[in-house]
Amino acid sequence: MLGPYRYHCPSCGLTSDPYLLRSKADDVGDDHRDRRHDGMHPTGECILTSGEWRAPQGGEWKAVAVFAAVMLVAFVSQWL
Predict the structure, then answer these.
(1) For 37-47, what is each residue's pLDDT tens digit?
(2) What is the SS3 assignment for 47?
(3) Is the predicted pLDDT of residue 53 greater than 80, yes or no?
C-alpha cells in the first residue's frame, strides 16, 4: 500500500519525515539504528502511518512513474 510512512525510535524520540514508500522509511530506520544504536533494535521502534497524503519525494518519483506507465500500458492494451 502506498501511503505516508515514518520511522519512529522511542529511545531517541526521533520520528522521520514522511515517505511515500515503506521501504524508504525502513532505510531511514536502518541508517539510524546503525549510527545511533550500533545496529541493535531499540525497544518499541516502529514504522508509523499517519493517514496524511503528500507528494512523492526524491527517488519515490521513479516508483510513481513506473506504476503510472504500467497502468497506462494496461489501459491502452484493452483498446487494441
Answers:
(1) 999 999 999 99
(2) strand
(3) no
Q: How many residues appear in the chain?
A: 80
Quote the pLDDT of residue 13.
Answer: 93
The cell for 41 is: 533494535
Question: What 3-state class would DSSP assign to 9?
Answer: strand
Residue pair 27/71 in contact (Cβ under 8 Å)? The answer is no
User: Which amino acid is present at 23?
Assistant: S
- How many other C-beta atoms lie within 10 A of the C-beta of residue 68? 10
Angstrom distance (rounded) from CA 7 to CA 1: 16
Cα–Cα distance measured from residue 15 to residue 61, given in angstroms and rounded to the nearest whole number: 22
Per DSSP, helices labelled H in the chain are: 22-36, 60-79
Distance CA 5, CA 18 (A): 5
